[in-house]
Amino acid sequence: MKYDPLKKEAGGFFNRFKITRILFYRILDMLLLRSWYIRKELRRWAQTKDNKERDIKILDAGAGFGQYVYFLSGLSKNFRVKGVDLDKGLISECKNFFTHTSRGDRVDFEAADLTEFSEESSYNLILCVDVMEHIKNDINVFSNFHKSLVNGGTLLISTPYGDDAAIDAKKGTPFVDEHVRHGYTPYSIRQKLEKAGFSDIKTEFSYGRFGHIAWKLSMKYPVMLYNKSRWLFLFIPFYYIIVLPFCIALNYADLKKRNSSGRGLIITARNKTVK
Fold this sequence. Notes:
Helices cover 48% and strands 19% of the residues. It is built from 11 helices and 7 strands. The chain has helices at 4-14, 18-31, 33-46, 49-52, 67-73, 88-99, 138-148, 164-171, 186-196, 209-228, 236-256; strands at 56-61, 79-85, 107-111, 123-129, 149-160, 199-206, 264-271. A 7-stranded mixed β-sheet has the order 3-2-1-4-5-7-6, sandwiched between helices. Helix 7 links the parallel strand 4 (123-129) and strand 5. Residues 165-170 have low confidence and may be disordered.
């Protein structure tokens, strides 16, 4: 199943005006459970004393439409946020949008390949949301993240949970065509992050029982309809009017419940040099 055509269609529709772009960000924040988890972690990180009282540099690695750059740049005027993405079209749209906002002087964007991108000891926080499952050479990216963080800097990742060896034997190819892997287990991503030099690695399951139902209602079924016929896209807004309240309630329940398992992982890690 392909997500990208629907994402580009929706992005193109909402990108026409500044107000509709902001509305698009709000919709993504409501629908996507990963955004609930990421925003919770970012608020927690931003409220620490060190991060409130000094200038902070943040990298959004795989910025996409720029919704997390928008969120981060609104948390503090001390935050300088850079969004990087492989898609030059998305980067151009983000630059155009933020130029016409009051946050433009605190935000930057660059088209770059994460397997090659690194800026040594530059960032206090690197955010990477549902990107690593698209990149085959993930070890190289994790090493670049480690190089780009200042000593004591934080890496925050959202990615699908999945054990490739087990899933391949049962289901074959990934559910999403654009993915090069099903995801990570807590053990597998910990191994790769430790190899890249990270420590203090913590993992949390997202998309538990409630979140998985919400994902089906908010993402899986609409995307399946769109993949069958583009004309069905016209009915999707009416569909969301009905299911949105249920999705919000389910997302909230998943966020508040400590999941013993789930379809997603939230990972935090530190770049801490022992002296």
